[in-house]
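G., the chain you wanted modeled:
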Amino acid sequence: MSLTKKVFGTDKKSGKAVYEYRIENQNGMCAKILNYGGIIRELWVPDKDGKLADVVLGHDNLEPYVENPGFLGVAVGPSANRIGGAKFEIDGVEYQIPVNENENNLHSDKEKGYHVRIFDVEEGENSVKLSLKDEDGSMGFPGNKKLEMVYTLTEENELRLDYHFTSDKRTVLNPTNHSYFNLRGQDGGSIEDHVLWLKASCYTPTVAGSIPTGEIAPVKGTPMDFTSAKKIGQEIGVDFEQLQIGGGYDHNWVLDDVDGQLQLAAKVTAPGTSRVMRVFTTLPGLQFYAGNFIGEQDGKSGVKYHDRCGLALETQFFPDSIHKENFPDVVFGPDRQYTSSTVYQFCNE
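Predicted structure as C-alpha cells:
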C-alpha cells in the first residue's frame, strides 16, 4: 500500500494549490483523490487478467472541475439532490437557500458548495481525511458545521467513504459522492448495456422538476424494478411518466431492510469486462442517475463524453426529505451528529 501526492493545479479564487493524492494497493488498484471538491478523479481497477481501467469519468486538469455542470466525481454538500422551493423550516425559522434549478435547490450551491471547496487533508497509510469548516448561514444553511470525510483504499479492492458532520445548530445535512462509473473504463461508451441490480422494492416518484411527491411506491410491475438484475437500457425509453420526467432514470430508490449498518445496496456488471462493482451503504436511499444529461464534453485522455456514458449511484437520504414527514429525518445538530459509510467494492466474475 502506498500514498503519494502532487500538485494538480491552483485554485483561482483562493490562490491555493490543489493536490492530488494517489493511493495504490498491492493488486494495482489505484484511487486518485483531489483536495478540491473531494473529487475522485481516477479509479483504476483490474480485470480478471490484471488489466487496469480507469472506471470513473473526470478531467485531466482543474479548470473543467470549476464549472463541472454534471458534478463529475465530487463530494456534494451540505445537501445533495433537491429541496423543493429552495427553502425549509426548522424550529419555526424559515431558511432560504439558492434557487438554482427551476424554483428549487439542487446540490446546495453551484458556486459555493463543497464540490468547489478546498479541504484540509490528513494523510494516512492508505487513506486521506478531508475536512472543512462551513460557517453559520453559508449558502443559507444554519449552523457552524464541520465535515470530515475519510477515503480509504483497502487490499480487498474497496474504496470506502466515511462521513462525519457536526453542527452547533439544527440544520439539513445530506451529503453524497457524485462519481460516474463505466466498468469498461471512462472511454467505454454507453452504459445502457450495463446490468444493474438494486436492493430496493420501492422508490420515490416525482413531479416535474424531480421533486418527490412523498409517495413511497412499489417498483413491481414498472420499469423502475431492478430487484432482478437487468440492462439499464432495457426499459429506459418506454412510455412511463416517471422516465419522461427524469429523461430516463434519475430517481431515489428506497433500500430494503435498512438498519443503519453497512449492507449491500447495488451490483453492476457490464459486457466486455469481468469487472463487477458492488455498493454497500449505511444510508436509506440510493439515487440512480443514468447520466441522461452529461452532454457532449471533453473527458480524460482526449475522450469525448456524451449522455449516458457513465452512471451514478449516489447513496443518501431521500430528496426533499425536509418537507416529507414520512421520509427519513435529515435534520442534524448538537443532539444528533451525522455519520455514514459507503463502500464501492470491485471484484471479477
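The mean pLDDT is 98.

Shout if anything looks off.
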